[in-house]
Amino acid sequence: MTSESELRLRHMVEQTSRTVSDPEGRINKRNFVDAVRSELGDGDLDPATQAIALDKLAEKLVTDYGDRHNPRPRGPGTLFHPDDILKLGNGIWVRMARAKDFDLVAWRRLSRKNRTHVDEADNKIHDYSDERLDAFRTTTGIVDLIDLERFVFGWTEEEAGQTGLF
Q: pLDDT category, 166, cuts 50, 70, 90?
């Protein structure tokens, strides 16, 4: 369940995204991050919302640490570096230096599972893009995706409320 503070934080980020979007709907990520940081630093957030923001920051910093220490090629035939981390699932990590054989099995299994999910998501993206690009080519007078979705694929404003953001 999402807390009221989490919802306020999401709303602030949503509103900030709209202020940094240009008239064509494009967002410069660096400008977006700077604007969100400014909103977070202006002192208007209640303590519960600040705590949620700090939790998210800590989560992001730890995730970045894990990503930087993800095994990568280190030379011919090896991914090993003693300080790199194997992510084993369920939030458990182990440094490569102390990994056991069963850790390698868990890491390999999780890697394959993640790869399957990535491939499935990528297939959906390609299928969706191919279908929309075909529709753009065969439909005259439509230049924005929202119009294509409305007139060719039957998208309605009611569907916009089904994003699960709030």
A: very low
